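Marked as duplicate of an earlier ticket. Keeping the data here for the record.
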Amino acid sequence: MSDPKLTHLDEHGQASMVDVGAKPDTERMAIARGEIHMLKATFDLIRDGQIKKGDVLTVAQIAGITAAKRTSDLIPLCHPLPLTKVDVSLTLDEALPGVVITATAKTVGKTGVEMEALTAVSVAALTVYDMAKAAEKTMRIQNIRLVEKHGGKSGDIINE
């Protein structure tokens, strides 16, 4: 495990963007996942394409991809990254009932893409909520987490 020091604080404890200029470019990849739980009736509306705003899963997928590309605009100390790939998949899961969202982000660079993958999942989940909120306001966005990451000084991490 790497040094547990918080890297976004300077020597005076002030917020600081990490200087990654001396780090080598390496292939980076991260996968994040989360869920949005809902009533069976709302699940059925989404599955059957009956949400008035349109195709919930496609719109949420595009929103997630867009969010990954804009992560540094949303999270102040994130570096803008040249993403080489972003994939966001939304899968209906009747057992929840709800939607499981998985995002994969890739780059070749000096810093990882965990935040981009996590942002993609978060915004995709918020988009599902937004599109279906007329049918249900009790949906729950849950369990957004890093599933795995590869590349960089800390190496590979697999959480599930």
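See parent ticket for discussion. The mean pLDDT is 90.
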